[in-house]
Amino acid sequence: MAHILIVDDSPTVLMSMDNLLQRFGHTTTQAASAEEAVDIVSQGGDAPKMVITDFHMGGANGAELIQSLRKQPPLRFTPMLVLTTDSQKERREEAKAAGATGWLTKPVDHEQLEAVLNKLLPNS
Amino acid sequence: MNSLLDQFVSECRDLIETSSRALLALETDTENPAQINELFRAIHTIKGASGLFDFKPLTSCVHAGEDLLDAVRAGDVAFNSGIADLLLEMLDRLVEWLDSIEDSETLPSDAQEISAALSTRLRDYISDGAGVNDADDTSQQTEVAAPWPDDIPVLEGAETGLSLITYTPGETTFFAGGDPLRTVLAAPGLLWMQVVQPDDWPDVDQLDPFMLKIGFRLVSSATVPDLEKHFSYDIDDVSIERIAATDGPSAIEQLADDILQSQAALLATPQTGVAAENIQKSAADVVARVGRNLNVSDDAVGDLDATIADVRGEPAGNDPAPVDKPQVAEPEKQPAAAPAKQRSSGYLRVDSDRIDALMNLAGELIVAKNAMPFLARKAENIEDGRELVREIKMQHNTINRIAEELQAAIMQIRMVPVGSVLSRFNRLVRDMSRKLGKDIRYVVDGEDTEADKAIVDELSDPIVHLIRNSIDHGIEDPTERAEADKPKQGTIRVSAFNKDDSVVIEITDDGKGIAVDKVVKKALERGLIDAERVNAMSANEKLQLIFLPGLSTKEEVSDLSGRGVGMDVVASMVRRLGGQISIDSEPGLGARVTLSLPLSMAVQQLMMVEVGDGLYGVPVDSVVESQKISPVSIRRHRDAEMVLLRDRLIPLVRMRDLFQCDAQDDPETLSVMVVDVNGHESGLVVDRFHPGVDAIVKPMSGVLANYDCYSGTALLGDGSILLALNLREIVECQYH
Amino acid sequence: MPISLTDTEAVLSGDIDITDVDALHPWLTEHRGGTVDLTDCKSAHTAVVQLLIAAKANIKNNSETNDWRSILSNSNSYLLQ
């Protein structure tokens, strides 16, 4: 059971990610943009155990978000994943350079999410 | 190139050859299921192995080929010559790409484009609805497997091969949210894992706990693609290797290991003074070490050490090397208990360089043991030395036997069937005869005949030229053949068989044969021979003139039969291998070229002679006698120098002139080694004679291969190289 | 509490996070070779395991389960059964 921050400008994606994560017993906080995500984190409270963010969003992109979240002490060691499509492999490298742990390939299904949670979070 | 990649390239080359063979067989027998399966398996294996590396264009194009073959195998697609051509084209590409991988570890820049086009064409053949299955990846697990590491327990599935993953994440991994241990523990198919620690840790209060210092090794039963997927976030920090449990070290390997160790010490011995002395000293080392492992009493070893120290010029008893407990040497000793539960395969793929290294060492041992009789003589001068002399002679016999057995065993390892080379030319014959509009069948007989790998490897070039010659000049086109009442299809037959101590290869064609008069005419025209000599020749001898340098009977150099490469080049290639070449022909019926090659590069006895600053070897078999003569006894006839020895007039070859050294200053006597070359005696004038050695003469390679006056090189016990003289060339060179 | 530290022992239970290193590191510095009880420890972050190895902590594990914890004893290896 962990608390996960998901960031995407598409409500559909947010909802489906939330659904999936709930099935693994995780709870989510949702943000529609990088800026909103930064706000949520800087308000304090329980730091998320994982961050999953879309790459292309209005405003700052996923890589930029990850770079700024990494600077927040409670998130220095937090797994952060970027959502990309299969054709955006160079985005993954960009995100990794910015401090991402890895990526999820859209569309995210149960199996993919399970594999990724297993290698990054306890008790999944 | 890393060893896995190396292995991959050599494996693929083998598989490509297998595939080509199967494809060509399928052309005549399109529904042979065994050939289709063989082809499919080979292609499938290439695909599987290539998946270990990032050669996506290669993998995807082979994948398309595999899918097509799968459809053929399932009967969904009928095999036809179009498919054969396309697959051959694909194999040609693979060869090109493998060359590129070998050179630069990358594919050529156009590979992606070519692969895409090829894949499309391959897939076009797969009819709609034909099952395009992602073939299972299990069969790759038996391929490309490295030996099972000693420190890993043998796991379920070790015989067929598992994956060993070495995962070395970067120091700052934690700051990217990584938790490598968790990733390792979640790896698919995990069977075993281990934490790899740094060599030493700082004191705990100096430790930065957020800097990752440890790494991981794990063994998994999952497929390589699955593992790559699992570790995809850190794929650059991961290496995956297939490992399989194989046999433990064999008796011969243990023996070799002993020799390796002693030879290592041998090579570490500082080398001063003349070579001969060095050989003795090196020998002393080998003897000392091998001797300790034999059943010798401590006293005898002590005595031996004293003698050895004497030879080395050291005070006795000064050798700090501990004397191991004497053991009984048991070459047939069982190998140490192998970690494998079950032996996976009776074959090991071994880099041929390693076998060469082993062979060189065996050669050195053979050379080194020559010094033992010398030790025995030395011991005779020691007071009460008789017992020691007896011991040394006994040791000499034992070591001699072991060395010979070792050498024979290595020779045996090096024996490979010539078929691997011969069947390769199927393709050549097919492509070339198509281009020339000829119809030619290629038949190989005796492909199981074995010869030393070095010989077999070198066979390819001369045979290619001979086959090309046959296709180009020998076999007529179908109309011409029909007019001559011959079957439309010509035949080129390559037969290999053993005869005495050699392997004989005959390349026979049923073409128009060779016109002797044309050969003779050319030879005369080019001034390669004088008419007087020709008249004295038999028809067969005249035919052999075709091997003279500078003679080519075809007016124009054909594009196909290899530009500028004549029979003389073929002949010199063969002679360089220590072989002989001859030709016979029946005009109108065909021609036959016979190559006779040594079975192996066995030990030769060489006499050593000194010329200038160098030592050279002369095969003992060719040596008639060694004489010291007075310079005044030399007679001159035109430019030639001769000497009368026991009523025979022997032409002299001044070796110093040949090697372009300055002449000796007025020596009182000349050292003449009389040698027999093809029944003719010549005297080599050298500076000095040295004792004979046993040595393995290996053909020259690289730049030196162009120096015809050497037949090869032999490694001496002190690590120096002896050049073996090619007497035939030296003697001929003198008269041309 | 996943970590409880006393003068004689550090007891780790449940899932130990990388942030727990902040507490464990000073304790191991003060208690060289101190006993660390992993009997009820389910999982530990790589950083925690690395710290235990580097500090040569005296590992106590009364659990009979064969799991990752054996990398802290058996020549740092874990053989799954």
UniProtKB/TrEMBL annotation, chain A:
The modification 4-aspartylphosphate is found at D54. This is Two-component system sensor histidine kinase/response regulator. The keyword Transferase applies. It comes from Marivivens niveibacter. Residues 3-121 form the Response regulatory domain. Keywords: Kinase, Phosphoprotein, Transferase. GO terms for molecular function: kinase activity. One of its GO terms (biological process) is phosphorelay signal transduction system. InterPro entries: Bact_response_regulator (IPR050595), CheY-like_superfamily (IPR011006), Sig_transdc_resp-reg_receiver (IPR001789).
From TrEMBL, chain B:
Residues 1-101 form the HPt domain. It catalyses: ATP + protein L-histidine = ADP + protein N-phospho-L-histidine. Keywords: Kinase, Phosphoprotein, Transferase, Two-component regulatory system. GO terms for biological process: chemotaxis. InterPro entries: Bact_Chemotaxis_CheA (IPR051315), CheA-like_dim (IPR004105), CheA-like_homodim_sf (IPR037006), CheW-like_dom_sf (IPR036061), CheW-lke_dom (IPR002545), HATPase_C_sf (IPR036890), HATPase_dom (IPR003594), His_kinase_dom (IPR005467). Residues 603-736 form the CheW-like domain. One of its GO terms (cellular component) is cytoplasm. SUPFAM superfamilies: ATPase domain of HSP90 chaperone/DNA topoisomerase II/histidine kinase (SSF55874), CheW-like (SSF50341), Histidine-containing phosphotransfer domain, HPT domain (SSF47226), Homodimeric domain of signal transducing histidine kinase (SSF47384). Residues 356-601 form the Histidine kinase domain. The modification Phosphohistidine is found at H44. Its EC number is 2.7.13.3. Pfam families: CheW, H-kinase_dim, HATPase_c, Hpt. One of its GO terms (molecular function) is phosphorelay sensor kinase activity. Involved in the transmission of sensory signals from the chemoreceptors to the flagellar motors. CheA is autophosphorylated; it can transfer its phosphate group to either CheB or CheY. This is Chemotaxis protein CheA.
From TrEMBL, chain C:
This is Uncharacterized protein. It comes from Marivivens niveibacter. The lineage of its organism: Bacteria, Pseudomonadati, Pseudomonadota, Alphaproteobacteria, Rhodobacterales.
